[in-house]
Write a structure and sequence with these properties.
The chain has helices at residues 8-14, 19-38. The chain is an all-alpha fold. It has a domain at 2-38.
């Protein structure tokens, strides 16, 4: 797609993601390759609001 001159916006629309998600993934790909781009970072633990309540 990009090699055929498609814009980032057109590619993001085609693969049904927000442009910022596409650009962030594209940047990670350039920096570290495919495995790095597709690796999901660990998320912080979520606080359970009802935990420990009586």
């Amino acid at each position: 797609m990009a090699s055929k001159g498609e814009t980032d916006q057109a590619i993001a629309s085609t693969i049904r993601v927000h442009i910022s998600s596409f650009e962030r993934t594209q940047e990670k790909f350039v920096i570290g390759g495919l495995d790095f781009a597709l690796k999901d970072e660990p998320h912080p633990p979520k606080i359970h609001k009802l935990e420990g309540k009586s």
